[in-house]
Amino acid sequence: MKNYQDKSKYTNTNVLEKIIEVTVKSSMAIALMAAPSTAMSLSFTPVGTYATRVFDESASRITAFDPNSDRLFVVNDDSLAIDILDISNPNTPDLYSSIDLSLLGNFGGVNSVAYSNDVFAVAVENDTITDPGEVLFFDKGGSLLNRVTVGALPDMLTFTQDGTKLLVANEAEPEGYLEGDIDPEGSVSIIDTSNGVENITYSDVTFAGFQDFNAQIAQLRAKGVRIFGPGSTVAQDLEPEAIAISEDGTTAWVTLQENNAIGILDIETATFTDIVALGFKDHNKDGNGIDGSDEDGEINIDNYPVFGMYQPDEIASYTVGGKTYLVTANEGDSRDYNELDEETEVADEDLDPNAFPDADILKEDETIGRLEITNTLGNTDDDDEFEELYAFGARSFSIWDEAGALVFDSGDDFEQITAKLFPEFFNSNNDENNSFDNRSDNKGPEPEGVAIGMVGNRTLAFIGLERIGGFMTYDVSNPLAPKFISYTNNRDFSVEFDVDNDGDLDPTDEQLGEVGDLGPEGLTFISAEDSPNGKALLVLANEVSGTTTIYEINSVPEPGTIFGLLVFGAAGKLLLKRHNKTTEENSAF
């Protein structure tokens, strides 16, 4: 029987690894790829931050950049506003103005922003979440140009590359599942902007829904699409989360997070041509391990008889050799409503002794007893016992082809890398520094946001980690064999927050200023060609710290040996005295 409690491989770190780990801690992330012929060295330096000083209220969620005015639109859900930042000097982002959206309607929240051709589009949800939301169009100065009604809960929006169409993901979450509760249909609104946004009317909006799949519910479930809302049709149950669009603007791929699927949309005909089940990740395979316990007091990334549902949040696309590839951040999500609460824990369920001969060990808190799983899958023979276990999310990023077939998955990279670089803060939560291992029984580091960008002649993918913070960078120029570049995190784990009389965290402005970024939500890449300072930039919107941070991406001298890496890392330690920011990287992975 497997010994799930053997943690020796995480406590006896190789001495050379430890030296590298310590010396590369600096305000720069030194990035190397192993093969000298393809070596690539980059630094990621946090050069400027705009801070709202608002804690854990989504005061910075999503951003969009206008290269003509050097202005950055930032979604501030805390104040129901769009903050317009002047980043003509990325070192000193400055608040140009703020658009108070409450003056424009009775909105329940602001969810997303996108830019094209001197126009910013903003998605706002109705105060009654099941009612239709709106898209508001603004110029660079924040003046309202037009508005149009879309579907319920518009959660994300993006323009086609030529700017002639705007696609809106209407998530359409249900009110609940009690009798009389409303469950609107998920959809994508396709807005024709070719005649100018000032001239848009409701006739320029086409809705692509899923009604044609209602009669295929059995087939979709058989394929692995999760359709499980009590009494819901397919059209009601599918919840569009995020959208990626092909370069030619003809096809869109829509993540259906709770459903563990992707919808493929023909934009011209406003028709979904397929709903692709993403399948499941086997955490019992080498390279796919997880740490599934927050009660063992240690890092223990291991293989377990558990499947992970990919359930991607954000999605991005890029083209290689004329083929489109999709990059997803596999966050995971669950449903918790009246009459439907799918979250349970391994220890709370009966496990089939034939499928799980070591069930007693698995159900211990120190193993995976506290791991959150769904109660909607795994009972394959409809008795009182589970034959399979399915956890939320895959703790990774994936690359898929244009048909939705898996091309690459990062396996357990994210937990392995953060375990080595931040062993004392592994799987921390995003609102409390003293939270080691806190998220291991949930969804681990929770990759949520993704952005794609070209630096030199290489295509890079940036993946934000919502819980521990920071972002991973991979070279995805070859989608079949991506290479880890760096992990960057400017969070200062030594900062302790005050608490209020109720025992809740209540950091001071000074503490928020010192802690760095918490809870990255959206990532925006700005190419060197579009950048205000001629350097490629990456913007992180952080919803817990309420900060918007700009990273400058530069090439650095490329060490040819381990000694060179150590010397450069030591130099970074000196720089650390002048920068109250920390980034982490280890090319040895």
From TrEMBL:
Choice-of-anchor I domain boundaries: 59-553
Matches recorded under Gene3D superfamilies:
YVTN repeat-like/Quinoprotein amine dehydrogenase
Q: Where are the transmembrane segments?
A: none
Q: Which domain of life is it from?
A: Bacteria
The protein's matches in NCBIfam families, at most eight in alphabetical order, are given as: choice_anch_I
Quote the PANTHER family the UniProt record gives. MESENCHYME-SPECIFIC CELL SURFACE GLYCOPROTEIN
What protein am I looking at?
Alkaline phosphatase
Task: Identify the species of origin.
Answer: Okeania hirsuta
